[in-house]
Fold these 3 entries.
Entry 1:
Amino acid sequence: MSPAAGYDPKIIERFAEQLLRKADNVRVGCAVGGGVFGVFVGAVPLTPLKSVWGLPAGFGVATIIVGALVGILIGWVIGEGRAFRYRVQAQSAIFQLEIERRVTSAVADAVATATAHAASTVLEEPPTLPSVPPLSPAPPLAEEPAEEPAKPPSLPPLSPVNESARPTEPLLRPPGGPLPPVSPPPDEPPLSPPAVAESHQ
C-alpha cells in the first residue's frame, strides 16, 4: 500500500466541510432557481400568452414579483430537503472521526496507566542492602547449664514372668525304658514313698 493511501483524519474533516458547503450551496441554488422560474411564470401576462391567464398587462409587474417570491419559497423548501442529506453524510463522517479520537485517547490513557503501575511496582521492590564487613567474634559468654530434656513419663514396673521349668527328660522314652510316674486318681489316696518305689520296679 502506498504512503498516499494511509489513514489521514484531516481528509475526513475536509470531506465533512465540503459536504456542509455543498448543502448550503444546494439550498441557495434551489432557491435562486425557484425564483427565476417564478419570474418567468409571473411574466406571462406581459407576453403574447396573456390570454392563458386572462389578466391585463398592467398586472404584469405584480405577477412577476409574486411569481419570484413563490418560486424562491418553493426552491428553498426543495433545496432544504436535498441539503439535509449532505448534512447527514457530513455528520456521520464527523461522528466516526470523533469515535476514532476517543478510542485512541482511551487506549493511550490505558497504556499510560499500565506503564505507571508497572513503574510503581518496580520502584516498590526493596532495595538491595550494601555489603556489611564481617563482625569480630563476640567474647565468650559464661556457659549456662544446658537444659535437660524432659524425661518421658515413667512406666509401672513389669511383673516377672515365671517360666515353667522344662523337663530334662526327653518327651519320647526309649523302648524298654522306665515309665514316668503316674499321678493317682483324685479319689484314691496318695501312695507312700516305699509304695512308689515298688511300683517303679
Entry 2:
Amino acid sequence: MSASGSRSRTSSEADRPAAEYHRFVVVLSGPSGAGKSSFVSDLLGRPLDLVYSVSATTRPRRPHEEEGRDYFFISRDEFRRRAAAGEFVEWAEVHGELYGTLRSQVDAALRAGKNVLLDIDVQGGRSVRTHYPDGVFIFVLPPSMESLEARLRKRGTDSEDRIHVRLQNARREMEMLGEYDYAVVNDDLAAAQKQVASIIVSESLRVARRAVRGAT
C-alpha cells in the first residue's frame, strides 16, 4: 500500500480496537451535569465492540419502554432476593426505587466478545472494581464548579434546592477521583469524546489483555 493509501483510513477505522484481546468493563462516572449521557451516545456510535449494560429496576415500566432494552423490570422482593444472592455487581436506591447492574448480563456480553459500558456513580464504580479489577474506570470532570453550576441551571429541570444538592454531591464525588484510572475534562465536548474513545482503544492494545486471552 502506498503512503497516501495508508493515510486514507477513516476515523471509524482508527477507532476500531484490535480484534484479539480480553474484553473488559468500562465504567464512566462523573457529577450530574458533566455530560456523561453525551459520552455514552458518542461511544456507542463508534466501532469499539462496546455495548451498554441494561440495569434492573423496581420502578414501574413507562409506556415507551421495553423489557430488556431500557431496563429489566422486577419486583422489589425479587430485587432484594437477587441482591442477597450477590447477583448484582452494584446497586443503589434512588428516589425510593432500586436500580442495579446484573453480573449475569455483564458476563454474557463479555463472553460474546463485547466491551461493556456502565454509566454509574462513584459508589457503584467502587463496587464494580471489586468484581472486575481489570476494568477501565474513567471520570468525567467539568471544567470548573462554576461551569457545572451554569450547566445545571441551563437545563432548567431542577429547583434551587436540588441544584445545591447536586453541587454538594459533585464535590463529594470529585474527592474520589483518585480511585479512577483516567480523568477527562469536558471543556470541549468533541475533543473530550475523542479522548475517552482513545482510552478504550489504547486499553484494548494492552499486552496484559492479550496475555489473559491467550492463557484461557
Entry 3:
Amino acid sequence: MTAQQPAVKKYIVRLDDDERERLSTLIKKGKAPARQLLKARILLKADASEAGEAWSDSRIAEALDTSIDTIARTRQLLVEEGVDSALTRKHSPKSARKRIFDGAAEAKLIALACSPPPKGRKRWTLTLLETAVVELNIVDRASDNTIGRTLKKTVSSLTSRSNGSSRRRPTPPS
C-alpha cells in the first residue's frame, strides 16, 4: 500500500461526542458487518477534533489493512451525508441489474415448479424449469442459477413462516 496521499485533505472528519461514542460502541459490540466496523474504525482514527486521533490516511490504511481510496470515500460520505451514510452500504440504482423474476413471474415459476413434471420425468429439474419459463413466455431468459435462487428464497420464506406460526401459543385472555 504505497499509494500517494493527497497533500491537502478535502474532507476533514470532525466527530462530536455522540458520534464518537456511537462508533466506539459499535466496534466494542462487534456485532455489525465487517465493512461497517472497518468504516467506524476509519472514522475514529481520522477524527481531527480535539478528542480524535487525526491519523493520516496512509497510517490508517496500514493499520487497518485497507486502501486509501476506501478511507477517502468514507471521509467524503461522512462530511457530505453524515455518519449513517458513511457506515451503510448503498446500492446504486444505475448499476443494479433489473430483476428477472418480478412478483407475477415468480408466482408463475412457483406454480410451474409445483405442477406435475413433463412426461417421462419424475420431477422438475432447474434446467427443465429454465426451458419451460422461456417457452411459456414467463420471462425472456433465465439461468438455472436464477431459478434455483428464486425457488430457494421462496421455500425458505415459506418454511420460516410455517415454523414460526406452529410454535406460537395463544395468549390466555386477561
